[in-house]
Amino acid sequence: MSLKEEIISLARQAKEAYYFLSQASSEEKNKALQEVVKSMERRREEILKANQQDVEEGRKKGLSKALIDRLTITEKRFESMVRGIREVVSLPDPVGEVIKMWRRPNGLLIGKMRVPIGVIGIIYESRPNVTSDAASLCLKSGNSVILRGGSEAFRSNQAIVEAWKEGLEGAGFPASCVQFVPTVEREAVNILLQLHEFIDLIIPRGGEGLIRKVTEISTIPVIKHYKGVCHVYVEEDADLEMAVRISFNAKVQRPGVCNAMETLLVHEKIASSFLPRIGEKLKNAGVEIRGCPRTKEILPYAVEAKEEDWYEEYLDLILAVKVVKNIDEAIKHINTYGSQHSDAIVTSSYSRALKFLREVDSACVYVNASTRFTDGGEFGMGAEIGISTDKLHARGPMGLEELTTYKFIIFGEGQIRE
Amino acid sequence: MSLKEEIISLARQAKEAYYFLSQASSEEKNKALQEVVKSMERRREEILKANQQDVEEGRKKGLSKALIDRLTITEKRFESMVRGIREVVSLPDPVGEVIKMWRRPNGLLIGKMRVPIGVIGIIYESRPNVTSDAASLCLKSGNSVILRGGSEAFRSNQAIVEAWKEGLEGAGFPASCVQFVPTVEREAVNILLQLHEFIDLIIPRGGEGLIRKVTEISTIPVIKHYKGVCHVYVEEDADLEMAVRISFNAKVQRPGVCNAMETLLVHEKIASSFLPRIGEKLKNAGVEIRGCPRTKEILPYAVEAKEEDWYEEYLDLILAVKVVKNIDEAIKHINTYGSQHSDAIVTSSYSRALKFLREVDSACVYVNASTRFTDGGEFGMGAEIGISTDKLHARGPMGLEELTTYKFIIFGEGQIRE
Q: Which domain holds residue B128?
């Protein structure tokens, strides 16, 4: 069998599994997930061993320390992976929910019902826990999934998928509910991304380069999870203590994630009182500040920001700071340089709060809270498969509901169109 | 300016217009639409004249009678185009609706608010009324629009857009809310489909060839409006009079549209009583029947159906007919050969009605009603921009709501993440 035939056959099986899964009840799906928990635990040693091999090979290849860290499944991370499946069991099943239903003048009763999307392809990089996290969310929402992880985690991903297949079969589910691309050949991804006949949605998880490549090649719809260039804007009337607390949290609490602040915007009227206070705290936390000329006047330890800095997702202890004339300049800056992810204003003005909420064109717009809350769990949606920076289908945190589509169900009594 | 620069400049202006439009109130947008009604009426002669030139040139080029008919703006069609704008004025504005809102344990108040998508590109074929229909739906939902019609309707479309721009400016709106690609060069479309920086969504309206080409080239998300291979399945327990009425309506009332029936499936137990009744009526209406072997035994005037017939969207007085063993075979046939558009069962069985609704994987699934109801107006959504055969973002009839996305608005009181 050629590689192409192999990938097509794998996708065809996934589509058949989807027909099975789309009809499974919540009880059946939960039972299957519980079987997977058991088989994951049974195969713990195997999975950890496969992971060790990946890690050793990664070291030989000279992967960076950060990459090796992301690749490693510690005992704690293994536990958290298994707990993740249990948490998905406890989440409500969105499938079958009738979002609305209405009667037409001719008596037709029309309902909009949530149904699974179909076959979802997940293309991701080094972290092997994505394998199990993505599979559990897809299964619970009635979708079959085709997984293609990074080559450096190949053995780990394969071992996790084998445990999954064993669990699924134990519950009487087709093993092909969770498919794994059994090769590290890059050509496999190119083939996969053309199979719109079998695959309904592609979700790439990883760096900007991966996402761009996938979007360019794919003839299947893609939901992108691009970078988060998040802003906090401090208004002239802000409670400065609150502004310090929120800005510090948004930058420092976990700088390596997409909802961390990358640029701080400050109203010119309070720049000289606010910047020294937040600057001191940030400096003590080891944050490098890249400021506009006015910021540099106030904070002598700031380095000069270049035009590129306003676009930058540092994911690190670096912060761009700009003093602006007013809220209009702040909003314009965010809509121009931001990534439509998460942006916050700190203000005590009712009308400026509403203006900011209305005019900032981002997935999540905050008043007086840290951008770090952009997260499926924090929003109360349960686990998330990612945070969409796209506008179509799903925007912001994507949970189980966002892994469904809908169909119209129409109850008639013989109606015809005149 | 090169063609590329020209298209980019046009898209950039559309994006700026979107920022304006997204902030316009419903009242302001309705006022602008009413100004457009006036300017359309003022420019009636100009539009009809431009259309006559298109029609004459079309005749010279030897366009088919059907194409010339679709191209022609009669007085009646002009009236209906203007009435269409008035109807959109009367529809509720979806922008700003808060779909849901909830409070988190930490006090954060999180809402999901409908907002416009941004800049929408519509690529369509010969019917010039699409120009005005699409513009009014996009404007009302706060989106700016870039229109690219067929070359044979170039003068008509241009004249309609000029009237639109005059009306918009009269209401103090930027004329660039409605942009028109001012050339028939094909390269312009290729350029347009790469401008994901400025354009958020592409909706192609036309034949399968156009849609496939657009999908292949575009780096912008596309919502496809493919063909409708719609089925009616008559169960063994169906009220045969109702089954005749529904099947006849679904095939004959308007055969050239996507929600017309293309294949009739009949349970084997009633084939010999039902097929002669519907067959006679269809024959008298001039319908050619292409049947499976069993159908041919019962209806001697049927011609033999080939494998391709089960995939075919005839859009004509032709019908494929197949006798099936049971509901499972019917559902499998629909999910295999259909186009996930609109499918109906005629039955008196409660459990088979529910089974069909659940297992048929189509945008609109009917019990005891004609597939011809799949339409934004008939569903009570007001006007429609099309009927999506995609599963992402919008499925089935797309009205104003489906031309919006959402953003999360978060009201805090100083919350930070621990």
A: 3-226+396-411
Residue B135 CA from chain centroid, whole number:
14
pLDDT for A66: 86
CATH of the domain at A33: 3.40.605.10
CATH number at residue A307: 3.40.309.10
Residue B382: pLDDT band with limits 50, 70, 90: confident
Can you tell me the distance from the alpha carbon of A247 to that of A241, in angstroms, rounded to the nearest whole number?
10
Q: Is residue B87 part of a domain?
A: yes
Q: What pLDDT, on the 0 to 100 scale, is given for residue A206?
A: 86
Tell me: do A180 and A45 sit in the same domain: yes
Q: What is the ipTM of this complex?
A: 0.94
Q: Which residues of chain A have pLDDT under 50?
A: none
**pLDDT reading at B214 higher than 90:** yes
Question: Which candidate, A393, A388, A355, A361, places its Cα nearest to that of A374?
Answer: A388
Question: What is the 8-class DSSP label of residue B33?
Answer: H
The C-alpha atoms of residue A394 and residue A206 are separated, in whole angstroms, by: 18
- Could you give the percent of chain B with pLDDT greater than 90? 93
Q: Do B405 and A415 touch (CB under 8 A)?
A: no
Answer yes or no: is B378 within a domain. Answer: no
In sign, the C-alpha dihedral spanning B80, B174, B18, B109 is: negative
pLDDT score for A101: 97
User: In terms of domains, do A356 and A343 share one?
Assistant: yes
> DSSP per residue over B346-397, as a string?
E-S-HHHHHHHHHH--SSEEEEEE-GGG-STTTTTS-S-SEEE--SSS--EE
Measured between beta carbons, the chain A residues lying within 8 angstroms of B102 are 380
Chain B closest-CA separation from residue A94 CA (Å): 15
Residue B247 and residue B338 in one domain: yes
Q: Which residue of B has its CA nearest to A99?
A: B99
Q: Within this chain, do residues B194 and B246 fall inside the same structural domain, yes or no?
A: no
Query: Do B282 and B244 have their domain in common?
Result: yes
Claim to verify: residue B44 and residue B181 sit in the same structural domain: yes
Angle at A367 between CA A361 and CA A373, to 5 degrees: 85
* Continuous H helices in B253-319: 268-284, 293-298
Residue A28's alpha-carbon distances to A33, A173, B119, B399, in angstroms, are: 9, 9, 43, 36
- The residue with tokens 């705290």 is A281
**Chain A contact present for B366, CB below 8 A:** yes
The reported pLDDT for the residue numbered A324 is 98
A373 touches chain B (CB under 8 A): yes
The answer to whether A48 touches A73, Cβ cutoff 8 Å, is yes
- Flag whether B379 is in a domain: no
Same domain, A263 and A123: no
Task: Write out chain A residues lying below 8 Å of B245, CB-based.
Answer: 414, 416
The number of folded domains in chain A is 2
Say how far apart CA B157 and CA B154 lie, in whole Å: 5
Tokens coding A173: 């589910």
Burial of residue A401 (number of CB atoms within 10 Å: 0-12, 13-18, 19+): middle
What band does B97 get if pLDDT is binned at 50, 70 and 90?
very high
Shared domain check, B45 and B192? yes
Give the per-residue pLDDT at A17: 98
What's the pLDDT tens digit per position in B287-346?
999 999 999 999 999 999 999 999 999 999 999 999 999 999 999 999 999 999 999 999
Contacts for A84 with CB less than 8 Å, ≥ 6 apart: A129, A132, A133, A136, A383
